[in-house]
Amino acid sequence: MSQLNNHMSWWLEVSNNTEQKVAVFIVSTLILAIVWYKSTLPSSSNGAPPLPPGPRSLPIVGSLPFLGRDLHKQFTNMAHTYGPIFKLKLGNKLHIVINTPELAKVVLRDQDETFANRKLTVAASIITYGGQDIVFSENNVCWRNLQGKYGHLEAELSEMSININEIFGRANLSDFFPILKWFDFQGVKRDMKKQLQKFDQIMDKIIEDRVASNSDALHNGIEDHGGKKDFLQILLDLKNKEDAKPLHITQIKALILDIMAAGTETTSTLIEWTGAEIMRNHNVMKRVQKELEEVVGLNNMVEESHLLKLEYLDAVIKETHRLHVVVPFLIPRSPSKACVVGGHTIPKGSIVLLNAWAIHRDPNYWDNPLEFNPDRFLTYQLDMKKWDYKGNATMNYFPFGSGRRLCAGLPLAEKMQMLILASLFHSFNWGLPEGEELDLSERFGFTIKKRNPLIAVPSQRLTDVSLYM
Ligand code: HEM
Hints:
Elements: H1 2-15, H2 18-40, H3 71-82, E1 85-90, E2 93-98, H4 101-110, H5 122-127, H6 141-146, H7 158-169, H8 173-176, H9 188-219, H10 231-240, H11 249-280, H12 282-295, H13 311-323, E3 339-341, E4 344-346, E5 351-354, H14 356-360, H15 410-427, E6 428-431, E7 442-443, E8 449-450, E9 457-460
Parallel strand pairs: 2-5
Antiparallel strand pairs: 1-2, 3-4, 6-9, 7-8
Helix pairs in contact: 7-9, 7-11, 11-12, 11-13, 11-15, 12-13
Bound molecules: protoporphyrin IX containing FE.
């Protein structure tokens, strides 16, 4: 106590003297400035390689105040200043941005297992029942085994899906300052809970009805669902399986929500961009329709069996995925242990963004990258591997991610996008409304959408009107 009094009396003496007050203020400010400056320098203590370079950040808020509206463009510009891998402190969270195929390969392929986890944001935690889905689950063998069984579920709840993606896309202060989680200043928690409540009501009713009709069928000796099972039935059957890891109803709901949130808006965004590019490029439109005429014929509707033969349309869609990558930073990864990428330490738990938008438009890897040119996907690459969506042939191109956290819906998405676009451009001719100009400006969010929705006017293309009935 007497020691404390000594300290206090020193402080009282000092604070009685104005000159000394100013001196104390200056010295304190200098000390703070030095501490802050040192904290922003790359650290190379304990012999580990330094952190990646990056902009100096302010105390507490980091670089948050300097973020603009179009983060994909801002981060791409920053890569020109800081190099292919840079760091950024947002609030108290360290973010690492990767901007070249070589480094993306290190993260997505070479150190795939370390980078197979994701950080659960506040919004994600609510809508996934605390991470019980695929997207935000830890690198989880149970879900891995389930993948590949997508296929039959119809996208029913599309408005909710749009809302959920919009809330995901909001920069939530509570994710950068976990201490603020309880206050929910921006209403992210509140809005997501509302969506979850709606979803729960709908899904509980659907599942209840199905369980009741299953038990009726069982009662009447019908067990095989007429030889056809939809996605919900497959999951319910898994729930009842007596193996080591049966599914809970909550996991089933989380999985269905993944399909809705991760599957519908992404696909519709891609369809809209492709439609806009085809309409903007008259020659592309002509080639797409000519191919459809040859493969399908004007007296037929498009069927699944035609899809593999539509090579030009496939190239048009691939080119759209390149130029208008739907999920610009993939779904951020978070390493489970400290590791080294491109000669820099990536600390455990940091948030890693893979800048696919920059890589897909990098002139070092693409000729005339801003030109919409589907022909580049018709050619085989140097090593004679055909372009695919998984980043197998080259890491210049990975619109669905790569490695063990690759998009789980890729086989379904690939078929859906082909079938929808083939049907739209085979059955109809499309034009813009009178006086309307095609606009390709972007709106950044979790997905990059068209800023203004595409409005197109269809007219009959097939000769036989009965095909439309
Ligand atoms: C054009 C359509 C789509 C695009 C562009 C797209 C893109 C992506 C991307 C970039 C990722 C992150 C991959 C990574 O981090 O490496 C992802 C993950 C995921 N996608 Fe898709 N996706 C699409 C359609 C779908 C569909 C139709 C479904 C479901 C039916 C789906 C379900 C998922 C799931 C569950 C994950 C998480 C996988 C995991 O974490 O293991 N996606 N998607």
